[in-house]
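Handout, section 4.2: multi-component inputs.
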Amino acid sequence: MDINWKSLPFGYVKTDYNLRSYFKDGTWSAPEASASEEITLHIAATCLHYGQEIFEGLKAFRGKDGKIRLFRPEENGKRFANSAKGLLMQPFPIELFVESCKKVVKLNERFVPPYGDGASLYIRPLLVGTSPQVGVSPAREYMFLIFATPVGPYFKEGFKPIKMQIVRDFDRVAPLGTGKFKAGGNYAASLQATERGHDEGFSSVLFLDVKEKRYVDEAGPANFFGIKNNTYVTPSSNTILDSITNMSLCQLAADIGLKVERRAIEVDELGTFEEVGACGTAAVISPIGTIVDRETGKVYEYCKDGNAGKISTQLYNYLRQIQEGGTEDKFGWNTLV
Ligand SMILES: *Cc1c(COP(=O)(O)O)cnc(C)c1O
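Output:
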């Protein structure tokens, strides 16, 4: 095997096996390993026509001690079941989800990157409606798939401040819609804004609340947080996908003595934060250096010395250390494979 771990992109690399489980006649089949990268689907499957598709993303890390750790897989399992319910799909049992995560890592153990390069094994579970429907209604049959692929750090430049753009002429989701579920359709709906943002020189976009365009909502495919006066503040909104990274950062922030607030953040408040960032499994934290409001032209600047803020850096290191077994897992977040 010839993988240059240090220059691994955040992309797809073929591994040895994926797992598949099928829901039919009221039960899930035991997940079976497959060496094929392809699936066969009915041309009228609901996932193809009516968007019955949800997914998850989590990582396995090789520690300094050589052990492989999965970060909070039961939380992904719970969220996966919740997303399924939101799209009227058959939820995949949480225990079977965790077991499948462990198994897919074991089967592809030789692809778990070595400790120290910031690379990891990314695990992608997904659930799709497979039985045919022409009228709009939920499928009766479902397929659960889980594959693993080694990934490098999300940002090649490393832990460096990024540029974000506030968009007001696109919405990712609707106020009472599917924003709180990890559905592929939400991503399709965010592509136009995100690609334009990239073209205009930004790493990601910041979506505002859909109703009033007054509050900060999602930071593209990540949650948003701000830090000021020794307080970690993150938006609470029912159009946000509850990030497991954010939930973990809230706990770590409290652990290092910060206050934690989950509340609405007005766009105008952006100017008052000492540090801001985006968080999610892919990068853990992406420190934000600049936010430009595309419509008003207003610019918010942070990290003026070009480096991530002190508290963001501390939180990032704390979480990464837990994930790699470099410090005590005092909240019991890791599952050993
Ligand atoms: C997956 C996702 C996140 C991040 O969640 P994590 O559990 O931290 O990976 C944030 N926002 C959206 C829209 C997402 O899909």
